[in-house]
Amino acid sequence: MIVVIKNNQEEKQVNNLIKWIKSLGLAVNVSKGESSTVLGLIGDTTKVDMELIASLDIVETVKRIQEPFKNVNRKFHPQDTVVDINGCKFGGGFFQVIAGPCSVESEEQIIAIAKAVKAAGATVLRGGAFKPRSSPYSFQGMGGSGLELLFKAREVTGMPIITEIVDVRHIDLFKDVDIIQIGARNMQNFELLKELGRIRKPVLLKRGLAATIEEWLMSAEYIMAGGNAEIILCERGIRTYEPFTRNTLDLSAIPVVRELTHLPVIVDPSHASGLSRLVPPLSLASVGVGCDGLIIEVHNDPMHAKSDGAQSLKPEQFADLMGKIRPLMDIVGKHTF
Ligand code: PEP
Ligand code: MN
User: Fold this and answer.
1) Residue 183 CB–ligand 1 contact under 6 Å
2) CA 13 to CA 22: how far, in whole Å?
3) Does residue 320 have a pLDDT over 90?
4) Of 161, 173, 216, 280, which one's alpha carbon is 20 to 30 angstroms from that of 36?
5) pLDDT, tens digit, for every residue of 269-314?
6) Does residue 206 line the site of ligand 1, with CB under 6 A?
7) Ligand 2 centroid to 186 CA: how many Å?
């Protein structure tokens, strides 16, 4: 249930109402926008007398909401959430491009790629240290030493870093990571989601391989219900009957998710397609449908990449793509800073 407060009401009266709602055993999410304050009532609201609340002088409207996700629901929080990583903002018109290799492979590799993607306009560096691979015989990532190399690349370039966590037991290792990625395979690892709800650190939550939009938003709800609202969603393609591409990029999910939630949503055209030549057109289409950023795999030697070479752009291809993204951003009203 949501309660919209009339403009310019006395804080004391609003607080009294909040206190009364809490006394009914409900939690209250308060969202103060520029023109209105919205109270989101969380818990069993079936016995709450809607008419009684609507009759109060300070109340504009009261609505029941059907969706099971509350904290992440745009009805609770009409304005866009802006996730700010040291001045690098996602959402509310801010758009960023995250780029880097699928896996961190060596110091030379990550630093060379970091410098190249930064020069082309990327603002966040990606790189997997712990890799969730379908085969136990595939490269599993450099682990903790890969994280160290990412920290070094951050020191050299000044770019914030994003990397994937695969196990709740690694959480302490990630304390200096700027954005923690939850990969598609862990989207419903609820214990991991709860743990990331407890820490104050931005989280990139990828959509599961076969997850509905509602399931994806419920996973975000786990993190936000724990108290961490710094969540960026990422559409990375879903599994369909079409084998030509690695996954099927669900472009329609972007406007749908922007309607349903206030959280920023970005697109990963690399894992969505699995083919580097499809990354540029899918990136441009994603900007066109209103995403708040992109995460793109870039490798300086894709033929010898330890993972996902086929979908990785070379630095020069990435720079060329960035040149095409910029004019489109103007058209859709997005900006980097
Ligand atoms: C990745 O970003 O390297 C990755 C493994 O992505 P996903 O979880 O989307 O497959
Ligand atoms: Mn990858």
Assistant:
1) yes
2) 14
3) yes
4) 216
5) 999 999 999 999 999 999 999 999 999 999 999 999 999 999 999 9
6) yes
7) 14
Ligand nearest to the CA of 272: 1
| Ligand 1 and 102: CB distance under 6 A | yes
Query: Atom 9 (ligand 1): residue with closest C-alpha?
Result: 184
- Digit-coded pLDDT (tens) for 47-77: 889 999 999 999 999 999 889 999 999 999 9
Is there a domain that residue 71 lies in?
no
- In ligand 1, which atom is closest to the CA atom of 103? 3
Using CA atoms, how far residue 90 sits from 57, 232, 276, 315, in Å, is 37, 8, 25, 23
128 Cβ closer than 6 Å to some ligand 1 atom = yes
Atom of ligand 1 nearest to the CA of 295: 2
Indicate if 98 and 196 belong to the same structural domain: yes
CB-based contacts of 288, cutoff 8 Å, min separation 6: 328, 332
271 Cβ below 6 A of ligand 1: yes
CA distance 272 to 274: 6
Whether the pLDDT of residue 84 is over 90: the answer is yes
Give the number of other Cβ atoms within 10 Å of residue 146's Cβ: 20
Domain residue limits at 312: 83-332
Same domain, 98 and 190: yes
Ligand 1 atom with the smallest distance to the CA of 236 is 9
Ligand nearest to the CA of 233: 1
* Spatial separation of the C-alpha atoms in residues 147 and 171, rounded to whole Å: 12
Residue 240, pLDDT score: 98
Looking at the fold, whether 95 and 40 belong to one and the same domain comes out as: no
Position 36 confidence tier, pLDDT thresholds 50, 70, 90: confident
